[in-house]
Amino acid sequence: MENMGALTVFWGDSSRRSGQSVWSRAFLSVFVLVAFFSAPLKSLAGEAKGKLLATRPLPNLGQSCVSCHGAMGEGLTSRATPKIAGLPRHYILHELDLFASRKRVGVMQIVAKNLSSQDRQSVAAYFAKLPSRRQPPVFHPASSWGLGERLAREGRLSAGIPACFLCHGPKGMGIAPSFPPVAGLSAGYIGEQLAGFKSGIRSGDPEGLMVAVAKKLSPSDIRAVSRWLSGGPDLPGPPLRHHGMVVSGSFLSPDWDGGPPGPYGDAVRYGRKLFYHTAQVAPEYAKNGLSCAACHLSGGTLANAAPLWAAFLSYPVYRNKNHAVVTYGQRLRDCFMYSLNGKKPALDSKEIISLEAYSKWVSDGAPIGVQFPGRGFPALNPRPRTISLTDGQMVYEHSCALCHGPNGQGLKKGKEFVFPPLWGTHSFNCGAGLHLVAKAASFIQRNMPLGNAGTLSVRQAWDVAEYIESRPHPVDPRKRPGFVK
């Protein structure tokens, strides 16, 4: 009513200034009131239409959306139908469009074909606004993770299987708009979809990422992760590797089991937490959207992604960048300044000591003085004679933008970056190692897209690395006025 009063006063004052008649003032008031309330009315009409379409029996089928998905979108266990209430509107619409265009198979093709493009938008909006009916699975300490929980939380990146939660968000509750929730769906539905991706029956997933990952999952992997994500009992995992070991000339770090007991274990656990959530744990030192885990994949254990077990045993060493012999702790301090675009913690700070403790734990069992394959970012040869920024942009848009955003600004869940920004104010600065095109190209070709690594050619990796480095980045701190080493 206050808004209506304000509108009447406005038009009244205006009419007195212009000499308009009473009828003109009334007409203008009505016109503005209609415009003022039309948007909410249209929205209400859209919601009502979506509900009507979701509940009415469809021609040639005799059943409605809620016949299979439940009156509130809660899914039906008896039919292994998914819980769609509260899913992102964009995702529901994307799947309906895939069914309508016959890019996904199943009875939903009949449903989607009976809905116009506008109808599909209304149905998607209706189910997206319903309260979610999903419940997270039961979480356990790392020492007692089963096969499904370990795959969901840790993945098996050495085999090309990223953690489910890496893409689908913390606790598997989804990251809008492209990564839907997976936790709390029925085991039958999850298993059916993973098997469909694995066999090629289901497709249409962005960049073919789920097809690539599912093909690497064994039947027991699928059964275990489906059961655990649904809240059901897990399958026993393989025996944990409590100590690192050398196998066929390569070093394998210990499996994460929660860390050792006592004060040393406390430092390891804090270091691991800092490693994965750097800006949240140490905001006074890390100033951008990256974490240590953004570059050192799989908890710093993955070969060809600057593994910690290779770095920790290599120091002290002379570094051209520092023009001096530096310790591992000093190297970690540089990471905070350049890769994290922040400031250096003290050598005796909790942050540096805990990261050293975690790195030592990751390196447990690695022999000193042995150069194992996968150290750092191995050189990617040959370097093309010419590098195309235009081709690099095309590679980025096709293979990188899904996770890192169309403008390279990363992808957030709440206040934390799930996928790091690759340029802009929240990315690494021009003094970081990955700002060097050669290192970036090596990292990209051997590790990206995550879960589908190795699919980019050497030429594509060089092009997209050059494109990323050509975008704006924070200035190298050594070039800032008043820089102190």
Ordered list of secondary-structure elements with their pairings:
Layout: H1 2-18, H2 22-55, H3 65-69, H4 89-100, H5 108-113, H6 117-129, H7 147-153, H8 164-168, H9 187-199, H10 209-214, H11 219-229, E1 245-247, E2 250-252, H12 262-276, H13 278-281, H14 297-300, H15 308-312, E3 317-319, E4 324-326, H16 328-337, H17 350-362, H18 389-399, H19 401-404, E5 411-413, E6 416-419, H20 437-447, H21 458-470
Antiparallel strand pairs: 1-2, 3-4, 5-6
Helix pairs in contact: 1-2, 2-6, 4-6, 7-11, 9-11, 12-17, 16-17, 18-21, 20-21
- Beta strands, count: 6
Percent helix range: 40-55%
Order of helices and strands: HHHHHHHHHHHEEHHHHEEHHHHEEHH
Going across the biggest sheet, name each strand in turn: 1-2
Q: What is the CA-based Rg, rounded? A: 27 Å
State the major sheet. Answer: 2 strands, antiparallel
- Shape call: globular
The secondary-structure class comes to: mainly alpha
Strand content: under 5%
| Structure annotation, total helices | 21
First CA to last CA: what distance? 63 Å
Rounded average pLDDT: 88
Unreliably modeled segments? 1-20, 26-44
Written overview of the protein:
The chain is mostly helical and 485 residues long. It has helices at 2-18, 22-55, 65-69, 89-100, 108-113, 117-129, 147-153, 164-168, 187-199, 209-214, 219-229, 262-276, 278-281, 297-300, 308-312, 328-337, 350-362, 389-399, 401-404, 437-447, 458-470, and strands spanning 245-247, 250-252, 317-319, 324-326, 411-413, 416-419. It has a two-stranded antiparallel ribbon. A hairpin with a 2-residue loop joins strand 5 and strand 6. The protein is globular, with a radius of gyration of 27 Å. The N and C termini lie far apart (63 Å).
